């Protein structure tokens, strides 16, 4: 097993977290993955209740490794640096790759009239079932970062119930207890809080252009924090009365993973500034679950060197092989 041991300056969790999302990494990746992006097939997936999700598919002409489905984090998309880096590495190693967009992420805001929320698991399960039907391979894998890791592990926990043929699932820095994660973001570095407020508001404005009848435009201008936004949108646009019950509905802690059958693996850095590592103790015990906690890495960073190469790429190759 490869171990993550970055140079001293890159051991700072905020350096890891922030650099991984800057043009310093995005621009070289854009050049390196130009052909992968150009050849990606746009796919609209039909889910139950008329719901549609979007994704990008790169078949491999020699797919001896199988199919890898990748899920981005909250307010990320299929072209986030970690998604492109993972997809490029896996595709080059012989995997076909499908980068799935959650509702209202990437270019998908116009596909469904209702707003995204993190409890919408069934549509993700339906989308993955449709991917497996459309693109059958000998092996099928699912991997997600941050909130995408949370979704991936919840899918794994219910894969048997829905007949999903998944060989392994990997969650990278998955959201474990959303309540604690929201506290960490709001009370931690102001940079992270401003980032998510900005990204979420931007997404909501795009949605409103397609569905002005949602009617939250004036209220959105007044909301300044994630707490304010959740306290408004949860009772008005979800099935939950308050933010706390909403967060609990998609937590991985407690009994969520107790019926896990698909071999699953969590990678969570001990210094993640958003996902408290001690939440791992609150996961249900399962023989199908293995956990890896590198000392460094920040939140979905794991940059190995000053070339900004991603260790997760190599670790995923080890796990999926």
UniProtKB/TrEMBL annotation:
<protein>
    <submittedName>
        <fullName>Alpha/beta fold hydrolase</fullName>
    </submittedName>
</protein>
<dbReference type="GO" id="GO:0047372">
    <property type="term" value="F:monoacylglycerol lipase activity"/>
</dbReference>
<feature type="domain" description="AB hydrolase-1">
    <location>
        <begin position="69"/>
        <end position="303"/>
    </location>
</feature>
<dbReference type="InterPro" id="IPR050960">
    <property type="entry name" value="AB_hydrolase_4_sf"/>
</dbReference>
<comment type="similarity">
    <text>Belongs to the AB hydrolase superfamily. AB hydrolase 4 family.</text>
</comment>
<feature type="active site" description="Charge relay system">
    <location>
        <position position="146"/>
    </location>
</feature>
<dbReference type="InterPro" id="IPR012020">
    <property type="entry name" value="ABHD4"/>
</dbReference>
<dbReference type="GO" id="GO:0034338">
    <property type="term" value="F:short-chain carboxylesterase activity"/>
</dbReference>
<keyword id="KW-0378">Hydrolase</keyword>
<dbReference type="Pfam" id="PF00561">
    <property type="entry name" value="Abhydrolase_1"/>
</dbReference>
<feature type="active site" description="Charge relay system">
    <location>
        <position position="299"/>
    </location>
</feature>
<dbReference type="InterPro" id="IPR000073">
    <property type="entry name" value="AB_hydrolase_1"/>
</dbReference>
<dbReference type="InterPro" id="IPR029058">
    <property type="entry name" value="AB_hydrolase_fold"/>
</dbReference>
<feature type="active site" description="Charge relay system">
    <location>
        <position position="272"/>
    </location>
</feature>
